[in-house]
Automatic annotation (TrEMBL):
Species for this entry: Paraburkholderia aspalathi
UniProt keyword Transcription, yes or no: no
Record-annotated membrane-spanning stretches: 14-40, 60-83, 118-137, 144-162, 211-235, 247-267
UniProt keyword annotations, A-Z: Membrane, Transmembrane, Transmembrane helix
Highest taxon in the source lineage: Bacteria
Record-linked InterPro entries: PpoB2-like (IPR018688)
Protein name per the record: Metal-binding membrane protein
Lineage summary: Bacteria, Pseudomonadati, Pseudomonadota, Betaproteobacteria, Burkholderiales
Length: 270
């Protein structure tokens, strides 16, 4: 029907417009937040590295204030980093449930996206206390602090090796395929409950698939714009490239190389 076709095109344009606006705003906020964090300075640590202000409260800042600041920055950063690869998944969802001219498709898309980023928010809530506790130990134990550069290299090396595993290939395939096929869901229906569940499963699958790359982000510089840009590019390329599994392995080569360089540098400094 002509009317339905016009309405569908308008809905599609609105979807892309809102996505572009959200990406622009979140990217700008991420850059401002990272620059502000960088202006606070970093703390020199034994072993020749510096600790980010993201993990330790500055003068006059409470732990609760630091946690709120970290979580807010984390959520904005995740929106900017994950949205380029999330948009195709949301498009596939919209096609799966909107083919019969379903009403409220925009609202259902928002529900899926909100649940997806809820998973990443929970990940940030878990990462902060672990990172802060480790930072406190490193400040109290100089021997532990001196081991950080070597440990960082090993972690990055392992994260790179993960890119070559069958487990990674399965998770990546789930993020690139038709909704429901890898998510153990029944046929998608146009209701809020199904949208809520679908967003949860998308978020979980995506967090599994990005486990190695997210680990690199956390250990190499969670508020470093260069690291954020590199991880965002890697996630987007392996999701959208025609041969995603091959792209993931090429990215793995780069990460393994970075891990080897970090280990060599740590040994040289030691």
């Amino acid at each position: 029907m002509p009317g339905h076709s016009i309405e569908a095109r308008a809905s599609q344009r609105a979807f892309f417009g809102v996505s572009a606006l959200l990406f622009t705003v979140s990217t700008a906020a991420t850059i401002v937040g990272a620059v502000s964090m960088s202006a606070m300075g970093e703390m020199p640590m034994p072993g020749g590295w510096t600790m980010s202000a993201a993990w330790m409260p500055m003068c006059g800042q409470t732990w609760s204030g630091l946690a709120a600041s970290f979580l807010g920055m984390w959520v904005v950063m995740m929106v900017a980093m994950m949205l380029p690869s999330l948009v195709p998944m949301l498009l596939r969802y919209r096609e799966a449930v909107g083919g019969a001219g379903v009403t409220g498709l925009g609202w259902l898309t928002v529900v899926v996206g909100a649940r997806y980023f809820f998973v990443w928010t929970a990940f940030g809530m878990a990462a902060f206390p672990l990172g802060a506790a480790l930072a406190a130990l490193e400040m109290q134990q100089p021997a532990l602090a001196r081991a950080v550069p070597f440990a960082m290299g090993v972690i990055v090396l392992i994260a790179g090796a993960l890119q070559f595993t069958a487990w990674k290939a399965r998770r990546l395939a789930c993020c690139r395929t038709t909704p429901g096929r890898c998510l153990m869901l029944p046929a998608l229906s146009a209701d809020v409950t199904t949208a809520w569940r679908h967003g949860l499963h998308l978020g979980l699958q995506c967090s599994y698939c990005c486990a190695g790359l997210t680990t690199v982000l956390l250990v190499a510089g969670v508020m470093d714009l260069r690291v954020m840009a590199a991880v965002t590019a890697a996630i987007t390329v392996e999701r959208l490239a025609p041969r995603g599994e091959r792209a993931a392995r090429l990215i793995g080569v780069g990460i393994v190389g970075a891990g080897v360089l970090l280990i060599a540098r740590a040994i040289g400094l030691g």
